[in-house]
C-alpha cells in the first residue's frame, strides 16, 4: 500500500527541502506542491514514512484535501479517536507583507471541533504519543483548499500547531531578531528563568537581547557593532553588559562564573560560528545548559554541508540529539537547539516574566 505524506516549509526553502529529501529519502515521489506545502507518495514499507529534514516545519500522513469542516471530519473518520486538532496556516511567501490571520485560523478550528464532536479533544497542546489531526490552511491571499493530515506527536516537534508559533514584530524593538528569539524560545521549550544568565554572540543591535531582558534574564551581548540604547539602558540596572569584541577574543575574566544559555546569531559562516561556540564552551562550558544557534545558509554548499555541521554541533555541545527548524521570521538560516544536562547543583529560580 502506498503512503501519502505531507510537509510544510518556508516557501523560499522548498528547493532546499527537495534537494535534502532527494538525498535522504529517494523513496518519496512528489505528488502535489503549493508554496510552502508538499505532498509525496512512498511505496516503501516504513513505520514512520513522514519526511524529516531541517527544512520541514510540520509533517505527517496526508489524508487529502477539504473545502469545509464537514469534509475535514469525513476524512478524519478513518482515524482512531480521540484526536488533538491542530489548525494552522502555511507560511506566506513574504512574511513582512502578508501577516498571518489568527481570526481565520480560530474560526476554522472552531468549525472543525464542532464537526468532529466527541472525536476531538478541545485543547490543542499535544502530548508525546497522541494522535494529532493537522488541518493546513493556505496563507493569507491564497485560496487553496485545506490539506488534512495527521501525525503521532513526539518530542522532536514543537508544541504549537504547525510546529512553531509565529510572533509578530512589535514596532518598538531594535530588530526583527526580537520576534525570531520569541519564536525560538517557544519552539525549543528553552526553560528560561528570571535571573538566568544568557551570553549572546552576535547581539547587535539587540532585538533578541531585548526579548531576553524583558523575560527577566541577565544578558552579556558579544558584538563589535553598536548596541541599541534601549538595550544599553538595562546596563544601568546591572542586567546587560556589552562586550564590543569578536566572540573569539572573549577571555575568561569577561564572563561571570555561571552562564546558563548560549545564543548565537552572528552573520558568519556556520564553520566560523563553530569556532566561536567552541571558544565560549571552553570558557564556561560546564554551566551552560543549552545552546540556541542560528546557522546562516549562505549558499547551496552550506546546505549540502548541513548534516555534517549538525553532527559537529552535537559533538561540540556534547549532546546525542539536536532539534533543528526554520522559524517563520527566519531568512536564509536554520535554528538549532541543543539541550544539555543541567549543571550539577544549579538552584531553581523564579519563573520568567511573560514578554510585554
Ligand atoms: C544578524 S546580526 C545580529 C542580530 C542580533 N542578534 C539582534 O538581536 O539584533 C549579526 C551580528 O553578528 C555580529 N558578528 C559577526 N561576527 C561576529 C563574531 N565573530 N563575534 C561577535 N559578533 C559577530 C555582527 O557584528 C552583527 O551585528
Folded structure, characterized:
The protein is α/β, with parallel strands linked by helices. α3 (102-116) links the parallel β5 (84-89) and β6. It has helices spanning 14-24, 69-76, 102-116, 177-188, 207-214, 229-232, 270-284, 300-317; strands at 3-8, 29-34, 37-42, 58-66, 84-89, 131-137, 146-152, 197-201, 218-222, 240-243, 261-264, 290-296, 323-325, 333-339. Mean pLDDT is 92; it is low at 346-356. Helices cover 26% and strands 23% of the residues. The chain is globular. S-adenosylmethionine (SAM) binds next to α5.
State the secondary-structure class. Answer: alpha/beta
CATH class of the largest domain: Alpha Beta
| Mean pLDDT across every amino acid position | 92
- Let me know the number of strands: 14
Helix content: 25-40%
Stretches with pLDDT under 50, minimum 5 residues: 346-356
Please tell me the total number of domains: 2
Instruction: Compute the number of helices.
Output: 8
Shape: globular
CATH architecture of the largest domain: 3-Layer(aba) Sandwich
Topology:
Blueprint: E1 3-8, H1 14-24, E2 29-34, E3 37-42, E4 58-66, H2 69-76, E5 84-89, H3 102-116, E6 131-137, E7 146-152, H4 177-188, E8 197-201, H5 207-214, E9 218-222, H6 229-232, E10 240-243, E11 261-264, H7 270-284, E12 290-296, H8 300-317, E13 323-325, E14 333-339
Parallel strand pairs: 5-6, 8-9, 8-11, 9-10, 11-12
Antiparallel strand pairs: 1-3, 1-4, 2-3, 4-7, 6-7, 12-14, 13-14
Bound molecules: S-adenosylmethionine.
Amino acid at each position: 500500500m502506498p503512503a501519502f505524506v505531507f510537509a510544510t516549509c518556508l516557501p523560499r526553502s522548498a528547493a532546499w527541502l527537495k534537494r535534502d529529501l532527494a538525498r535522504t529519502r529517494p523513496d518519496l515521489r512528489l505528488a502535489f506542491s503549493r508554496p510552502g506545502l508538499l505532498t509525496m507518495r512512498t511505496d516503501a514499507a516504513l513505520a514512520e514514512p513522514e519526511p524529516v529534514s531541517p527544512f520541514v516545519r510540520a509533517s505527517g500522513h496526508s489524508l487529502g484535501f477539504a473545502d469545509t469542516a464537514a469534509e475535514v471530519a469525513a476524512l478524519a473518520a478513518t482515524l482512531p479517536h480521540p484526536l488533538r486538532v491542530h489548525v494552522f496556516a502555511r507560511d506566506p511567501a513574504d512574511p513582512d507583507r502578508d501577516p498571518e490571520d489568527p481570526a481565520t485560523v480560530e474560526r476554522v478550528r472552531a468549525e472543525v471541533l464542532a464537526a468532529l464532536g466527541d472525536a476531538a479533544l478541545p485543547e490543542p497542546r499535544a502530548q508525546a504519543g497522541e494522535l494529532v489531526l493537522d488541518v493546513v490552511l493556505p496563507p493569507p491571499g491564497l485560496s487553496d483548499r485545506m490539506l488534512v493530515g495527521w501525525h503521532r506527536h513526539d518530542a522532536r516537534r514543537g508544541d504549537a500547531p504547525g510546529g512553531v508559533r509565529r510572533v509578530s514584530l512589535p514596532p518598538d524593538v531594535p530588530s526583527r531578531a526580537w520576534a525570531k528569539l520569541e519564536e525560538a524560545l517557544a519552539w525549543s521549550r528553552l526553560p528560561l528563568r528570571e535571573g538566568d544568565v544568557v551570553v549572546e554572540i552576535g547581539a547587535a543591535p539587540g532585538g533578541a537581547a531585548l526579548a531576553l531582558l524583558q523575560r527577566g534574564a541577565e544578558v552579556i551581548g558579544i558584538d563589535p557593532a553598536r548596541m541599541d540604547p534601549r538595550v544599553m539602558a538595562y546596563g544601568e540596572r546591572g542586567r546587560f553588559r556589552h562586550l564590543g569584541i569578536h566572540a573569539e577574543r572573549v577571555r575568561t575574566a569577561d564572563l561571570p562564573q555561571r552562564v546558563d544559555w548560549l545564543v548565537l546569531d552572528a552573520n558568519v559562516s556556520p564553520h566560523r560560528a563553530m569556532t566561536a561556540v567552541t571558544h565560549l564552551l571552553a570558557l564556561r562550558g560546564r554551566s551552560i545548559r543549552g545552546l540556541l544557534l542560528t546557522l546562516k545558509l549562505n549558499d547551496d554548499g552550506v546546505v549540502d554541508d548541513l548534516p555534517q555541521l549538525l553532527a559537529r554541533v552535537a559533538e561540540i555541545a556534547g549532546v546525542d540529539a539536536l532539534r533543528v527548524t526554520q522559524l517563520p521570521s527566519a531568512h536564509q538560516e536554520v535554528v538549532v537547539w541543543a539541550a544539555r544536562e543541567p549543571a550539577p547543583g544549579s538552584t531553581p529560580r523564579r519563573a520568567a516574566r511573560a514578554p510585554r
